[in-house]
């Protein structure tokens, strides 16, 4: 062993970068982050990075609140832009879904979220160019925001480096070093062996396979969601808000480039990816046409807008669509922080501050470790969500 670290983080996505930030912000422990490609090379770089608080459980609402607040203050605190904006977000549904929406909105309001139910008339006032049925309503969250994900991960990592994190880019962890039931470090692709008090696996879609190779089976699956991009025609009358459309199973949001990103809420049709290093990053003509058709049912000008194609991306999903966070079962000295099932970006500040409060000396926040326990599936206690769309939580 050449060198020893208190914490070795595998992965330079939003989780790895945020964990490095929180570990080094509140302590003087030695932290090394290892990234095989570049910061944001996994799910993070292609993320929608929508920061909404619209969840259906008090723990996830509180965590989303902490995340939104943290991202909103980042530039002021660190003098680095992550392009934080607050367009606001509307979750549209029909009367059939209204009782769930109502219950969730009331829970969110009790926890301090500025949100309310609006009816079809108010929806039309919010988005005058939009088409909404009389039997539809929405939850309107005025504070919902957005960041630019590649900027965000790089800036958070840069601050973590300033705080003392050592960052190794372009080196792959090929195995976890085991001594009995303890993980004592990692081995890299240049055969370098690195000792660690804690190894934290923040390897996104690669996490399940990495654990399997160490003999640990956790239900972490990589899947391939698709996104399409459209350019609103010049002069189109649109408020440029973020929408979750439960009627059509769609979400869309304005991108910094001026385009509109469209994705599906339902993950059931996303293909399983066996090798996240080699997957199809393109999308089919049918997918783009399907998104255009659904989006233009809401905002008719998209029927006449050019598409800039789309992108195949990666989610790491679990059976209950919530992350797996905690000590790796049967392996002391290792933690897993993965499985964010398409909605982890906003959670990263709360999750990573929480993990850093357990492994280091960060102050505790909204994160509740037991809630995300790696053991919950074998114990038959998955997290229950209100929505059929797991991505909504
Ligand atoms: C299209 C899309 C839209 C999304 N929209 C939203 C949204 O609007 N709001 C929201 O909250 N969330 C959203 N998400 C989810 C969110 O982006 C993810 O939950 C989050 O980015 C996961 O981050 P991560 O750090 O866990 O994983 P990743 O970003 O995948 O990072 C893992 C990193 O580990 C590295 N790595 C893997 N194996 C090794 C190894 N052996 N050695 C060294 N490095 C390794 C990889 O190269 C990668 O950089 C979206 C995701 C996608 C794909």
Helix content: 25-40%
Give the strand tally: 21
Give me the CATH architecture of the largest domain, please.
3-Layer(bba) Sandwich
CATH topology of the largest domain: FAD/NAD(P)-binding domain
Q: Kindly state the mean pLDDT as a whole number?
A: 96
Oligomer: single chain
Low-confidence stretches: none
Radius of gyration: 21 Å
Question: What's the quick description here?
Answer:
The protein has helices spanning 14-25, 58-78, 98-110, 120-126, 149-162, 207-213, 285-298, 348-359, and strands at residues 3-10, 31-35, 50-51, 89-94, 115-119, 136-141, 145-146, 166-169, 173-179, 182-188, 193-201, 221-224, 226-230, 242-245, 250-254, 260-264, 271-272, 307-312, 315-317, 324-327, 334-338. With 393 residues, it is α+β, with helices and mostly antiparallel strands.
Question: Can you describe what's shown?
Answer:
The structure is a single chain. This protein is α+β, with helices and mostly antiparallel strands and 393 residues long. The protein has 8 helices and 21 strands. Strands 1, 2, 8, 9, 10, 11, 20 and 21 form an 8-stranded mixed sheet that branches. The protein starts with a strand and ends in a 34-residue tail after the last helix. The chain has helices spanning 14-25, 58-78, 98-110, 120-126, 149-162, 207-213, 285-298, 348-359, and strands spanning 3-10, 31-35, 50-51, 89-94, 115-119, 136-141, 145-146, 166-169, 173-179, 182-188, 193-201, 221-224, 226-230, 242-245, 250-254, 260-264, 271-272, 307-312, 315-317, 324-327, 334-338. The radius of gyration is 21 Å and the shape is globular. The longest helix is centred in the N-terminal third of the chain and has 21 residues, at 58-78. It folds into 2 domains: 3-48 and 149-218 and 320-392, 3-Layer(bba) Sandwich (FAD/NAD(P)-binding domain); 88-143 and 222-317, D-Amino Acid Oxidase, Chain A, domain 2. Strand 15 (250-254) and strand 16 form a beta hairpin.
